Amino acid sequence: MMKRASGDDEPKGAPHGDDAAVTTRTWVYAGAADDASAWRAETRTLPPLRDGDLLVECVMVSVDPYLKIQTSSKPTWQEPYAVNTPQRSFAVARVLRSRARGVERGALVRCYAGWTEREVVAASDVDVLDAERVARVGVAQHLAALGMVGRTAYHGCHTALAPLTAGETALVTGAAGAVGSLVVQLLKRAGLRVVATAGTDAKCALLRDKLGADVALNYKTTPISHEHTDALRAAAPEGIDVFFDNVGGDAFDAAIQLMNTHARIAICGQISQYHGLDKPPLAPRFLHHLIYKRIKIQGILQRDCSPEHSAEHQRLFVELLEQGTLHAPVTVRDGGFDAIPAAQLALFTGDNVGKLLVRMVDDVA
Prior knowledge:
Layout: E1 23-29, E2 39-45, E3 53-62, H1 66-69, E4 85-86, E5 91-98, E6 108-111, E7 118-122, E8 127-128, H2 131-137, H3 148-158, E9 169-172, H4 180-189, E10 193-198, H5 201-209, E11 215-218, H6 230-235, E12 240-245, H7 250-255, E13 259-267, H8 288-293, E14 296-299, H9 307-323, E15 330-333, H10 340-346, E16 355-359
Parallel strand pairs: 9-10, 9-12, 10-11, 12-13, 13-14, 15-16
Antiparallel strand pairs: 1-2, 1-4, 3-5, 3-7, 3-16, 5-6, 6-8
Helix pairs in contact: 3-4, 3-9
């Protein structure tokens, strides 16, 4: 159950006073599984604040496909996520107590607090949100267009896919998701013709009518695979110059056969394969096209985004959001702490449009 929170609230379950002990409920990673048994809820006592620390209460929590990658038993960009540790993810949180100069009680911060009601974090590890900007664009966009997914979209378009040239044809898979929906718009701003794929007719309509895609294909009703390239070929009759891939699998097998000479591919996600990372299906079978067409293919992680690109991402996306010319879809689930695991699992059934978040308290939007 969610509750109303305010900067004047003392943490539940503790007597008043800045030195009082605070308890919290936290989802703990229990081991790799494809259902909610991957996590268990625990109540724990938070450590006392030290100089430079903040006690925060999560008001909105992010769920993300990359959390599934972390459950692989083999190293990815990091070591496998440790069993019996709190599940971390990005969140926007409200400061309940502060022992950090310049961060006031009641401030909203973006932090890596995770799936928890409250947490103690170092002030040096948080981004303090501008209250006026929050009032203009909302809390959710600080975990969406202005957060990790927005930075990923900007980074991928301006590194792996560069140089973007007006008139080129681009393909974006998983285009109604958190990153893909932003990539479609960045490519259109650069003057490209954009072909997008998604899993429902409603998502395809959104991509065409709201986000600007020239063609949107429902891959569930229009087969796209190494054996079924007709629909994609009809959508991109002059071939594909730029491919931003969030899905992998059959879509990649189809697209690589239609790439033009010197095409560029950004591999952002492979969500079709995340449930079998340790025993993945047969690898893409058409990599020989990279030789014939001299295609560049690059994996991207938002952590590689340069300071210059990060600053430009923030400047541009704030401007576009405030102008109303960037549409960053967000699906916000209510239900608070108890709703987090189900929201994470919903990422793999296509229930969400854009960024999927869980609202932890009822006074944020």
